[in-house]
Amino acid sequence: MIRLSGVGKTYDDGTVAVQELDLDVSAGELVVLVGPSGCGKSTTLKMINRLIEPTTGTIEIDGRDVTGEDPVKLRRGIGYVIQQIGLFPHQKIVTNVMTVPLLYGESKATARQRALELLDTVGLDHETYGDRYPHQLSGGQQQRVGVARALAANPPVLLMDEPFGAVDPVVRVRLQDEFLRLQRELGKTVVMVTHDIDEAVRMGDRVAVFAVGGRLAQFGTPAELLAH
Ligand code: ADP
Ligand code: ADP
What we know:
By secondary structure, the chain is an alpha/beta fold. The protein has helices spanning 41-48, 71-76, 93-103, 108-121, 126-129, 139-151, 169-186, 197-203, 222-227; strands at residues 2-10, 16-25, 30-34, 56-61, 64-65, 78-82, 157-161, 189-194, 206-211, 215-220. Helix content is 38%, strand content 26%. The longest helix has 18 residues, at 169-186. One adenosine-5'-diphosphate binds at residues 135-141, 171. It comes from Nocardioides anomalus.
């Protein structure tokens, strides 16, 4: 589904963030990128939806080389969830989730209906939370809204950068479990970044371990990695 071949990224200031990266993600698979801070995980994620252009190598999605594609069009098929979710503070929760479908020309009624359903899907009762504003929700709840918003355009692929990083450990484990269930149910292909090895082993179908210098040290199932 997603294939990175010989991908490298050197920033304009000469920083080598990623080197000679080969990575493949199957449809419906959840692959976790894990490793210490600064080893190129976020850069890799952002190259997949072309928020960052790779310096070398190719990135394919469904067999298409995406480096030649219109990035705006590409991102319609890729949901993106980050730690700083950036909900619009002056818009109600339901409106936050409707934004992207409206942008893509969906009718207001359809977008609203879907947003309400998605809030329920991520565990936020829409009657209770739909008309609230972001600051009235806890960190964990805001993160759920972020996931709902990323799912609103029904993308086959989700990219997640430290999605549970901002919540306390107990809520975090609950969100991990719930997200895994949701991901299986919806059949999404997910690439997720974390610096937390426990989270990686817990969630990943396969785990890509990055090392300092932006190289892939290991790539395999949690069982394979733990056997080493
Ligand atoms: P990680 O997500 O693993 O913490 P990043 O991909 O954010 O790592 O960063 C990899 C390396 O690239 C780091 O050395 C970081 O400082 C550097 N880097 C990230 N973004 C930029 C940028 N816009 N310009 C220059 N260097 C950057
Ligand atoms: P979580 O387990 O998701 O982190 P919290 O323990 O932070 O949730 O919050 C518990 C309850 O308090 C939630 O139902 C949430 O809606 C409510 N709450 C949290 N912050 C606020 C706020 N600023 N205004 C109103 N309600 C809040």
